[in-house]
Structures are given as structure tokens and as C-alpha cells.
Amino acid sequence: MTKKWTFSLTAILLMILTACSGQSTTTSTTTAPNASPASTQAANATPSSVEKKLPRVAFVYIGVPGDGGWTYEHDQGRLMLEKELGIKATTVENIPEGPDAERVFEELAQKNDIIFGTSFGYMDPMYNVAQKHPKVTFLHATGYKTLPNLGTYMGREYQSAYLVGMAAGKMTKNNHMGYVGAFPIPEVIYTINAFTLGAQSVNPDIDVSVVWSNTWFDPATEKQAAISLLDKGVDVLAAYQDSPASIQAAAERKVWGIGNDSDMGRFAPETYISNPKWNWGPYYVQTVKSVMDGTWKSSSYFGSMKEGITNIAPLGKNVPADVKALVEKKKQDILNGTFEVFQGPIVDQDGKTRFEQGKKMTDEEILGTTWFVKGIKGVIPK
């Protein structure tokens, strides 16, 4: 009995000492008498435990992701954004360039924090709406007008076009190639120029005939434009539209075809060479992150192949190995910064020297291109 009482007394003394010790090191938190559990948790939370509110993001598409080209690649970028940042973005498809676009952007601006417009013709509608909603961040693909809350973004697709042109120059037999242009705007013009310069770098006798479809996605119209060139006897056909209509038309004539925007090899596997390819995901992720952390500033982004925003699709299965090796070598030169596509001498289709030997075109000069290089047959409408 004595040992049991002694043990109990000792235990009680230890408990008292422990309690006193705990009181001396514990910091008490004062809570308002009527505070809710939620407000109490917020008061006790550390800054790192409070998640930032995710922004509301919207994308406006000129076409549909099923086009297999331009809109498809932008939508792939959206999916990457959603996966990496946990954002569920709003998408609006098939919005024509014009008054309807401005109405759509106005409606989205009332419900979203960040809006991406993915076609050149959205420029003025986005500019007008951005002026009325200074707290909303607008990003416009391929345009040139900016505001404190409106930036632009584009990639140096001409680097990819040059490489594809090299492959095309090695594949032609009669030195006559064709190109279906979308609209006569600098983005399309300098891409056709780069393609032609790439082809001429391996075969100086090449000429490129250009016709305009004045469409971004209209398979029927684009196929007719392609046929007009095929009827002239071109044996390589390239195009700058969102649909695979042109390379499908070329395949029907057993002519080499070059697509645009995304890997279009599946549409004409036997006669496919390659095409420039976009990768918008990293840009979308980084841009939204910068808006979220408050570091975003309006700018005109012009990303390069080195940054991964543009590349070339895998060369077709019937393109010879030596051609693939040649293109890969030049690609490495571009990535290493040892080769510039638009570096003189550059002569226009009228025989005028635009840039002397060794002179590089500036970004402003590239983005303002309104003339064709030597070897191109076609007119740029005013």
C-alpha cells in the first residue's frame, strides 16, 4: 500500500510540474467572441497556407480545335495551362473577325481576369474592349497594338519555314513550287519569304508561285486555290491555312505537300514533307503565372525556336535520310544562334537589294514585311 501511494503522489507532482512548464512556453491566441470557425482558421493561417485565388481565364478561337492546325495547337496550349495551374478556362470557338468578335470580348471582359485572342483580325476589337476594362489582362496573338493591359504574342515561325523550305528544295524535280497564302499580311508574307529562301539555299533555280485564298479555315476554297497551282505543274505545294485541304489536294495528284501549324502528316502520309509547328503551352503557363504573381507587363513577345514556341513537324516517312540530316544540322545552327534567316544579301522579286551582305533584318523590319523575295511569282494585294 505504501509503495502504491508513493507512486501515485509522485505521478501527481509530475503532472502539476508539466502543466506549469507548458503554461510558461505556450502563446495564447485571442479570438473575437463571435468569430466563426472559418475566420478563426484564417486568423491562425500562415501566409504559405493560404492559396492564391486562381484567375478566370478565357480563350477566343477563330476556328475549332478539330481543325487539326492553328486552333488545335492553341487548344493544346490551353490544356497544358489547365493541367499545370489547375485552372478551368473558358473557350469560345468559331468567332469571326469583326463586330461579332468585339461583342464576345466585351462579354468575356465582364467575367474574366485574363483573355487570350488567337487571331490577327481580333486586334481592333480587343484594343477597343481593353480600353474599357483596364483591370482585365488581354493577350493578342500576332497583332501589333498594345496598351498597359494589352500585350501581343507571336513566334518566329519563319525559322521553321526556312527549314521546311530546305527540305522542299531537295524534293522538287522541276524546280517549280506553289504556296497557298491565307491573307496578304506581314506574318504570312515573311513566312513565304523564309520558305523560299530556305529552298533556294539548297537549289538556287527554284521559283515559288503564290495565290491567296483570303481564308484561315475554309477547306473548299483552299482546295480550289491549291488546284489552281497544281494545274500549273508545281511538284511541291505548301500552304498557310488551318486546314489540311491543300496537302490533301496535292496528295490526290501525287505531289509533295507541306501543311501548317500542326503535324499534318496523317492527312497525306505518302506525300508529306513537313510543316512549321506551334507549341503555345509554355507561353500560356508562364504568362498566367506572371499575372498571378503581379510581374506581368504589357509587351510584344516574339519567341524563337530556341524558346520552344515554334518547331518543325517530323519529316515525312518518304523524305530521304540525307535530307533529314541536312535540315537537322541547319536547325542546330538556328538554335545555337550561328544562323539568321533574314540576313543579307536579300533581293526582292523586282531585283532590288533590300539588305546588303551580312546585314540582319530587325524585328520591326521583319514584322513590317510587305514585299516578296526574288524567285516568288505572285502579287501582294494592297
What does it look like?
This protein has helices at 2-25, 37-44, 70-85, 99-109, 123-132, 157-171, 186-202, 219-230, 245-252, 281-292, 321-336, 363-367, and strands spanning 57-60, 90-92, 114-117, 137-141, 150-155, 176-181, 207-212, 236-239, 256-258, 276-278, 300-303, 310-312, 346-347, 353-355, 376-377. The protein has 382 residues and is of the alpha/beta class. It folds into two domains: 57-155 and 280-303, Response regulator (Rossmann fold, 3-Layer(aba) Sandwich); 158-275 and 320-377, Rossmann fold (3-Layer(aba) Sandwich), CATH 3.40.50. The strands form four sheets. The chain has a six-stranded parallel beta sheet, with helices on one face. A hairpin with a 5-residue loop joins strand 13 and strand 14 (353-355). Helix 4 (99-109) packs parallel to helix 5 and helix 8 (219-230) packs across helix 9 (245-252).
Task: Tell me the layout of helices and strands.
Layout: H1 2-25, H2 37-44, E1 57-60, H3 70-85, E2 90-92, H4 99-109, E3 114-117, H5 123-132, E4 137-141, E5 150-155, H6 157-171, E6 176-181, H7 186-202, E7 207-212, H8 219-230, E8 236-239, H9 245-252, E9 256-258, E10 276-278, H10 281-292, E11 300-303, E12 310-312, H11 321-336, E13 346-347, E14 353-355, H12 363-367, E15 376-377
Parallel strand pairs: 1-2, 1-3, 3-4, 4-5, 5-11, 6-7, 6-8, 7-15, 8-9
Antiparallel strand pairs: 10-12, 13-14
Helix pairs in contact: 3-10, 4-5, 6-7, 6-11, 8-9
